[in-house]
Each structure stands twice: as structure tokens, then as C-alpha cells.
């Protein structure tokens, strides 16, 4: 750490730099200039500056000299109290510490010992030291604490610049198309998520340049671990991880955050940031576990982490959605919105998740609240339009999609879904135009290419439809394309058979009045029963319950510990939260992919849970639920009947 004498000289230099009227004090205007100058990468609003100055002048009132403002002793006290980092501020201002005599006649020098780093020659004393003033590093709550950590950050900046220069030269750095989709809405920082959506940089990890970078990075990590104290080693690992994350080196950032978790297992920050890295890397289950640990640590830490709880709930919800656990995600989005009522992203995510499980009215309400708080939220307008379309309000859905596109012209989700809406409305020409706009933004979007072909077919442009299908076939070889091509060939053959036009179209099927169906005998199934049988079979196909062994239900009843509770009518029952039921269903349907499981949950929620949760309490009778699904599971008929009966007895 910098000696006290050197600190006082640096503080005096900073003080004199901003005491514009040389009256021996820093007034509010001069203090504001100081705050802005030492944080060049941070864009403060007038309200933020005013709040900072109010806090300084109130806390250090004893050092305020009337209208002159904060005295030199007061500024020194702020640094002594940790309100700022004198070394960082001094370097950020580009000041030089030359030998000089202080008021006691003692000569003070400031010469930092040379670093043992192999890249010390490249650490040039730049006038502004911009790398030292990143917004995250300057943050009083989550910034760098120890001076030696700054040296690690500076050396790591040089390593990253080297790697970037070599990869740019070889053309190895790639950008993905993530910014054309709806914003995932998760918080990457320990603060409310910003509106900035950056393109993700994809690094080539196969070359020798990257291997050299990883080796040199290991040396920096070892330097951090050799710090004189555990807190300093923790500070170094966290700073390395954050800088790597900032440059989208997520795998390497994760290593540092994991090391920080080992140093301080009950600290919220490393678990939160490890979860962020794991989520970006697509390791949703591990991300969920890290966010859960962060949540437990934050709740155990009292008021210290209250402000962070909404972000943890939001990111945990998004990780759960990545696993297909939408009902569980809804609970965390709701909790985030309760803790922070102005968290528009939490409300947007809640609305999107509710739409995903078929609760359209609730989805519309949440999305409208998000838009009320942030009217230019393109993603919320897009999802609101989808929910309105699902409810049959197509006119307002078109308006909302158009608002999303006006706010973000290259919004692929809005363009694609508006194309689907136009197809449902029979406006095929407009639909093909929307899909063409999707392809202009994302030329390899095979679904848009396929739907463009279908919409052109609906518009009667058969030749153009064939061309579009051929283009789609070049992009992928999925079965959907083969089905579409077969259908197109079938229509073409019918067209060649004659000039019947609409008559040929009508000849494809024969309509028979229901009253003309006759029963052969008493054993013939009635039409309503046949209809129900088809509905049940369709439900089984969507939920895949027919692939779930009914014995698993018995096992769940035998091993599950569900306490007896009393419903609103006073009847004892074994009720369970919907989110907990979702966890049971995930075990029963473990063979489903996350996106398929979401579809199964939507069907179960709409057909079963909405009926069982009569009072909309968020809880259902587990015994009744098992009794309902037992006949739909896989197994002998008698066995399924038996399990249904046992479920009713068990409850």
C-alpha cells in the first residue's frame, strides 16, 4: 500500500488541481468536476452527481468551510475512509509525483518498485491510464480494493490486447447474431441490467496464440494466489475474472471466479458471476446451482445484499428456463418484481414465461406493466403481440409487432412472428414480405425460408414458392422441408391434371354430414366419445406421458414427503406448489429436451392444473393430479387403474 506521506502529497496535488478559485476549499462545482475527472468511463447523470455530493458534504460536514467547501483535510479523510482510491485517481488525472518538501521539510518521493511481470516493459505510464477507470473497477461496492490488483489488471489488459491484435490480423474473431433476437434480459453485472446489447465475440481457442495467452494468464492467476492475504488473493481473482468476462473470454473468467469461490465460499459475488459465465456457456444446470448458492448467501447476509436479490432471482429464473423449468422461473421473476417494483425486465420475463405456459391473460398484464415502465422496450412489445395473438386479438397484435419493429427494425423475433400472424390471417403476400425481411437480417434462417415458401404458395405464386423451397433445402435437410416439397409436388400434379381450378381443390376430400354416420350396434362408440379419445391421444403425444412408466408414480408417492394441508373447503389434502410439481414432472419426463418439456408443461397446465387450482392459489392436490395422469401413463391397463385408485387413497 502507498505510505501515508506519499498519500497526503498525492491528495494535495489532486486538491490543488481542482481548487479553481484557490480559496482553500472544493465547492460543489469543483467537487463535481473531480468526481467526473477521476471516473472518465462512467457517465454520471446530474441526479447521480448531486446525490454523491450530498452524501460527501453531509458525511464530512466537520470539514466543510462555509461557502469554500471541502477542505484539504476533508478530502484526505474521504480517501482514508475508503471513499476513493488515491493512487487510481492520481493516475487517472495524469499527475506526476515529483520529489518535493512538505510543510515539515521532509522530502517525499514516490517510486514504485519494478514489477516482476514478464510484460512490465509494455506497461507504459499512459497519461490517463484508461484501463484503470473501467466502471466496474471504480465501483465502491464491487471495485478493486488492493493496489497490487491494479498491476494484475494492467498486465491482463496487455495480454488481451496482444491476443486481440493477433486474432484480428488472422481474421479469427467472429461475432454471432445474438443481438438480432429478443434480449434475454439477464443481469451480467451486480446492478440493474443496462439497455446496452453487445455482440458476443467468439474467440478461436484452437490456435497457438490462444494457448500462449492461457499460459501467461495462468502466471497472473498464480501471482494473485501468492498475495499476502486471502482477501487480496480474492480481490485479484475477481478482478481477473471480471476483465476476462468483459472481453467475452467466459471459460477463462469462470476459472477465476471458481477460484474466488474457493477463497470465500459464502461471498455472493463469485457465485453470481460464475453463474453468469456458466449460463453464457450453455451449462444451465450448473448456472442454476451457482445462482442458488448466491441466493442463499445473499439471504443469509442480511441487509448487505438486499439490493442484489432482484438480480439473482432474475438470473436464476433465466437459468431455470434454460432447463425448461418455466413454472419455477415464474416464481423467481415474481419475487424479483416484488423486491424491486420498477424492475421492468423482471416483469417482461414474467410475462414471457407466463405466455410460454399458456396463461395468456396474466402474460398480457405483466407485459403491459413492463411497457408502462419502459415504453420503448421492443422485446416486451414483441411478446405482448404474441400473447394478444394467442388470445385472438389479432388487430392489436399486429400493432404491437409493428411497434417492436419500429423501435428495432432488425428485430428477428418480431418480424418472424408477424409473418406467422399474417399467415394465420390469410394475408400470405404480407407474410412473405416479413419472412424476406428476416432473411435480409439473417440469411441462413431456414425456418424463415421455409415459411416464405409456404406463404408464397398460399399467395398463388407457385414458381416463386418452389425457388424458396430449394433455397431452404440448401440450408438444411430437416424432415419439415421434405414434407413441404412433397406437398408442393402433390399440388403441382393436381394442377397439371386439368383446368378444374377450385373443383380440383375440392376433390381432394369429401365432406360428410355428422348425421349420416350410423352406429352398427350397441358396442359402437358414440361420436363424443371418439372425439374425447382423439383429444386424449393428442394430449399424450404433446406431453409424452404415454412414455412415462406408471410405476414411477407409485415410487414418487412412496418416497415423496408431502405434508397434509387443508383446502379452502376444509378438506384435508396433500397440496403442492406448481413449481414443486414441475420438479416432479421433470423427473418423470427426464427423457425430454428442455424445449419439449416446456410444451408438455404448457399442455398440462392448461388442461389439468388450471382446473385443479380452482382458487388460483398456485397449489394443487398432488393425489388428484396423480390419479388424473395415471391412466395416461405407460403400463398395463389394470396397473394404471390400480395406481389411480392408490393415488386417491394416498391423498
TrEMBL record:
The keyword Membrane does not apply. One of its GO terms (molecular function) is calcium ion binding. SMART domains: TPR. Residues 6-41 form the EF-hand domain. Coiled coil: none annotated. It comes from the Eukaryota. The keyword Cell division does not apply. TPR repeats lie at residues 344-377, 378-411, 412-445. Pfam families: TPR_16 (PF13432), TPR_19 (PF14559), TPR_8 (PF13181). It comes from Genlisea aurea. InterPro entries: EF-hand-dom_pair, EF_hand_dom, TPR-like_helical_dom_sf, TPR_rpt. Keywords: TPR repeat. One of its GO terms (cellular component) is plasma membrane. This is EF-hand domain-containing protein.
